[in-house]
Amino acid sequence: EKRAVTQIEKNGYPDSIYINAAKIFQGIHTEKSKDRILVRYGDNLEPPMMAFKDEHSRRVSYELAFNALKYQDLLEEILLDSSAYPCYSIPDELTSLLVVMLYDLQDRKFQERKIFDGEELVAEVQEVGHYLYSYRTKLAAALARCRIKHDALSIEYFVPETIWKQEQRASALPVCVWINTFKISLEDVIRDLEMKGLTKVESVSDFDHYTYAVDQHCHDVLVFPSSLREELLKSDLFADCKLLLQ
């Protein structure tokens, strides 16, 4: 199961993830003033109805939506510069899906997305995905032109400074996780972590890389160094929802 989660993230996501991420993005995207609107997102004011398969799907959907938000200006510029937008076969109500899937496409270096066995396909996701992939060469060229124009080595250059500073602060914070005691006990979690090579320490001041501590006030909360965040989120303990990110 751990392998399957990693594989999905490397090759793209199930259609349901894109749909949920697009609904989230629709509600949080930056609204431009009328004289600056070049990309239109439709007028869907209904609260989004989202069904997440599990906690991992929820986390990935929000992560994808917020990544698209961070790079909204860049993604819009790529769409316009490549002439992929406007597209009259894709209504304004699907522009959020277009932007979210474009972020993921460039993150995969414009490689084709893999469809997994047993995946429930969504017509809108398939349509937008095929459309973007047909423009992949022009989209990649537009991204390259943006980077040259701004002398940017990577797309991280385009993150607004306020968000970049927030991410820098957040990335330095210890990672706190809840133990899902409906599925696993503290003792079993500790045993699993020790098998993975982690050592228990008394407090965050004693942290090294492969260490963790039990919260002094909540004994079903564990704290890890920030450097372990990605490794933890890809572990079987998170895939099985035995640990939940605080």
UniProtKB/TrEMBL annotation:
Residues 176-246 form the NOL1/NOP2/NSUN 5/7 ferredoxin-like domain. GO terms for molecular function: methyltransferase activity. It holds the Pfam family NSUN5_fdxn-like. GO terms for biological process: methylation. Coiled coil: none annotated. Keywords: Methyltransferase, Transferase. This is NSUN7 methyltransferase. It comes from Pomatostomus ruficeps (Chestnut-crowned babbler). The lineage of its organism: Eukaryota, Metazoa, Chordata, Craniata, Vertebrata.
